[in-house]
Amino acid sequence: MSLQPTIGIETHIELNTNTKMFCRCGVVDTEDPNVSLCPTCLGLPGALPVPNKKAIESITLLALSTGCEITRKGMFHRKNYFYPDLPKNYQISQFDLPVGLNGELEIVIEESTDNIQIERVHMEEDTGKSTHSGSGRIESATSTALDFNRSGVPLVEIVTKPVITSSKQAVAYIEELRQLAIDLNISEGRLEKGNLRFDANISVAPEGSSELGTKVEIKNMNSLRSLERAIDYEIERQTKAVEDGVEIIQETRHWDENKELTSTMRSKEGSADYRYFSDPDLPNMYLSEDFINQVKSTMPQLPKKQREELVDTGLSLKQANILSKSDVWIKSLYFKVHKQTKDSEASFNWITGELQGQMRKSNIEKLPDWFSYEYLSEIIELIKNSKISFTSAKVILSELLNTDSTPNEVAEQKNLFQENDTDKISEMIVQILEENQDVVERIKTGEDKLVGFLVGLVMKQSNGSVNPGMAKELLLKKIED
Amino acid sequence: MDITNLPIRKINTLFSKKELKPSELYSQIFDNAANSEASLHAHLTLFEDENIKKAKESDSRFDSGTAESLLDGIPIAIKDNINIKGYKTTCSSKMLSNYTSPYDATVIKKLKESQTLFTGKTNLDEFAMGSSTENSAFGLTRNPWNTDFVPGGSSGGSAASVGARSSIAALGSDTGGSIRQPASFCGLVGFKPTYGTVSRYGLIAFASSLDQIGPITKTVDDSRIIFSAISGDDPRDATSIVNNQVDIPSGKSAKIGVIKELMEDGISDEAKNEVNKVTEILKSNGYEVKEISIPIIELAISIYYLIAPAECSANLARFDGVRYGLRVDGNTSYEMMENTRAEGFGKEVKRRILLGTYALSAGYYDEYYGKALQARKEMIDEFTKAFDEVDYLISPTTPTQAFKAGEKTSNPLEMYMSDLCTIPANLAGLPAISIPTGITNENLPLGVQVMSRALSDHSLLNFSEIIEKEIQFNQQPKGWV
Ligand SMILES: [Zn+2]
């Protein structure tokens, strides 16, 4: 019996609004606890929530960009549960009338695409942060420190349908969602800061079965590595359980990064009844046609469309996907260089390979002001016309990142132009062959490798200005003579 | 002349003419409070020191002719579920017995701008849950007309304070009659404005969709003056609305309906007689009066006791000992929260939290809370229909006169029935007022309630003033001034 995994992912995206969801406190990025608070986000008696319009615009934009149907008459609900870092002991969320329903997101794996069905997109507020001492868990902690800076920060929750079938797809989905949020400018999208946090619902069932297996939820992951490993671990665990005839319990599990395994957090029996009901402090949220059109008008080009344009320039889907997930300046640099050189492969390789590599190595975050995209085009042209070697081109690029100069100037200064004049090269070769008669003899008896040694001598004598291919060709010809 | 018995407009004239000083009035008010407090226990806190200073400031404004507000120097009592910055706000609960608010409610901010004096904080049924002010963790309040009787509730402290002339007027809050019922029991005017016209920001919520702040005063005009000062759209309260008043006739062209269902069994003859007395006077003055049936009123108490507890179960979840208020230690955070809530809340509050939690629970929501919401919608529709036929609806405010302290404490259902006539206005969000009209055989006052369509508050006050003039109630409890 072959088992097929089914995965659904719930992602919380922290929005990049200036203020919190239901009060005017700033959204702060600081380790100092409890510095951005007011009666509302601290749940003081008598304080009331007022929705943040910018956050509603952001979630509407996300819902529209994933092709969701927009709920015109939306509603906020109270999700009731007790936890010390939840100031009101209920979370304002959305229940049966979320902002967006039934969308989809295109993901890319290698050279192919998939559409991940999205069930809903809804708005909610974040909780505060607990630090338990004496134990990592509230039940056994000797004390708990609370920081409410995060309390009330707007979150968007995006829930996929149970349509994901592998950890690879799951990772590609999160990568795509993250890029979308960044392109829409609704979130910083920084995983290390917990801007995106995900829960995965995983089950296994016999292939072809119309019913899903018992689902297990893995909560609160914020790295792609954890997501991938936790899913793989859980699929393996469940598959083994089914094969051994052990019943899978519907439960919530926790991924332990260090031990690399999932363990039970709580089982279904102990799960909470959240007693959702419409929040009487917040009137129904009407999203008018005008509002939706206004939000639509701010929609930037989406990653999917970007990829299409990139593929049209001659890139493979995989290359297009890499570029679509790069910083904006990289994407635009590519388009400019490609426009001049008409060489997608070289443009892609030089930008995503050598340029980014050198910048990373030298800790350069942005291109120096003097650095024009035309320099890259020039370098690509120089190589193509055999004016410089690939090695020289790397030297030139490195120089351009540090000194205000042009590729031609650097090549000139460093004497990096290749000698393409065959007469001059022949002269040099004749001289070298005379000085190395013994090597020539050995080559004639079959030691082909030694040709490389002679090419090296030519390069050395010419200060690297000879096109090595041409040097080798001429060498062989002279030896044969 | 008893200056504490004067209406606000008259006092203001005396202040302006320099025939009376705010400090003189305040001193008389404070004497009255000092005189009655031991017998009535209307207040939980009296603010003396700062008021002497503030009254002097008011004196100089009138001296220099710079006083602009009708409420300048007017001593007003505040129900202790409304936050005043820097003062304790207890809700008459052990849970908040040491809680000092760090912010002003919007109504307090507005009254401060009007240069009002706050005489102190008044007693209430814990978290405004009750109809007699017996459910206070700090002891019951007594009726100034006869101390064997309750003053009504939950704003019983506010009503007793104005009744005993310990303040010129008071703010109360009304969720199911908590302003109107004590006003009726204490021979005063109690006005619950249209839902949303007065900001709830800073009012400690009992049931958010029903709560509304309003005045308890000696005259209709006093209520009008306070309503004008405290109403208005508030950016801190998403349910507050722009106070766009609709004009309906208040003169002889106005059509009057007597609610059939509130003149039947369960209503005392005395209460019916007061209604008949008023309608006879109106008829003799040429008004058209007819009977109007609103059948769903029979369900009002059932609907209310699902919606109000459901909302309160979430609203009161924030009192957990974590951030403020009472904390009773335990071995874990959860145990601490449990111990705090077990000890901090009184019996009636616990009863309603349990009732509400049950009504919202999975499997019961549709049967209870869901049905109540549906019935509430129907009630709004029935009222809309009634107001197609008439402009004002008249009924008793309470089924009976005030009852004796201790008489209904052991029978919550009977206690709930005393809000039968007042609850519909909260469920439908309508403005409603209780006007004192008569004295019963036991020498206790009784009132009549008038309701009108949403946002016709000013017309309702105008019409009520006509009744007030015709009835000439002009009585006050003896022995307190
Ligand atoms: Zn805040």
Protein model, in words:
The complex is a heterodimer of chains A (about 475) and B (about 475). In chain A, a hairpin with a 4-residue loop joins strand 13 (about 250-255) and strand 14. Chain A has a nine-stranded mixed beta sheet with strand order 2-6-7-10-1-11-12-13-14. In chain A, helix 2 runs antiparallel to helix 3. Chain A has three domains: about 5-295, no CATH class; about 325-415; about 420-480, Orthogonal Bundle (Arc Repressor Mutant, subunit A). With about 475 residues, chain A is an alpha+beta fold. Chain A is built from 15 helices and 16 strands. With about 475 residues, chain B is of the alpha/beta class. The longest helix of chain B has 24 residues, at about 365-390. The radius of gyration of chain B is 21 Å and the shape is globular. Classes of the chains: A alpha+beta (about 475), B alpha/beta (about 475). At the A-B interface, loops of A face helix 9 and helix 10 of B. Bound molecules: zinc ion (ZN). The site of zinc ion has 8 residues of chain A, from loops.
Offer a quick outline of the entry:
The complex is a heterodimer of chains A (481) and B (481). Chain A is an alpha+beta fold and 481 residues long.
